[in-house]
Fold this protein.
Amino acid sequence: MLLVDPDPADAVGGGRVRRSVRDWVVDALCFAIAVVVGLMSYDTAMRNDPPEMVQLLDLVVGAIACVALWWRRRWPVQLAVAAAIVGTVVASIAGATMILLFTVAVHRRYVVAVAIALLNVASGLVFYGVYPDLDLSYRGMLAFTVLGVVAITLWGMFVRARRQLVLSLRERAHQAESEAALRVERARHLERERIAREMHDVLAHRISLLSVHAGALEYRPDAPGDDIARAASVIRSSAHQALQDLREIIGVLRAPSSDDDLDRPQPTLAQLPALAEESRQAGMRVSLVDELTGDDAEPPPAVARCAYRVVQESLTNVRKHARGTGVCVTLAGGPGDGLEVEIRNRLPVGSATRSEIPGTGTGLIGLSERVELAGGRLDHGITPDGDFRVRAWLPWPA
């Protein structure tokens, strides 16, 4: 926390605040001003011709007050009160009293500064009763005293307000820098999560295709040569595509880019037939139903990409957990109504067996997060007809 003028008690370990070069220069200047003003006040007061002992004692006390200014930051209020009380009978302390009043106005709250100012005005009333001015009337000297005290106090308050403003702006700058650092770290964290979801959605689909075709070759080593060659071709093509997808994702890590980067092609609804055909080549029975309206209108790229990922992850989950069942992918909606994507498959017949293709168990969770970030909603579960359904609704502006 930033302080306008930290007290020594606020220092680390309760130690003293270390003086800067500026502090030494200001203290020396204040000492010189206190000496000059004190001597001028002393010369004016001594025109009343007090006893020599009083004159000497006045100079001694004034010198002690000027020296005490070196500790004015440590005890500003205490020294100001003592100087105001002693100033009722000592003339040479006027300069030190003025510096201490200014110090209190700078370093302490408004109430404390006003109280010290009133004490100095009362001290002036008593002083000019003891040492009347030979040139001015008592009222004139009183007005001069009040004007001087008010001017010094207001000046000190102005300096304090300016310091508070500067420190407030500095604290806001520090806070803004901290918030900016947190936003950057948050953005990095979100980008890592987005890339992780992207890798899961893309690579899990490709690798599941590899696993299906490799499993077919393992269980049918005596298959005709044409079938083996076709399966090997699919494995090679899927592996090549997986490496290509991985290369694109790694490119995102190396060179930050936005979701709308045109240098990196993004999946759209037009690529869903190709995605369904890949699954058919892996032995799945996939039907694609297009019920979109809007005269061939295209949804926003982010919405289309999200819908593609929903279908891709759902087909991957069917290959993992419900192999051999039929899958129906339905697209509905249009501009203004939103885009609805539904993937429905029959539950596998017979006892549930462990999936031959390992999974992370977070596919549907990742889909839910992706859809929510796109401003939509997703639900999944078993329908009354005995089907497993994944349904997502995404906003499609008119």
About this structure: DSSP finds ten helices and five strands in the chain.
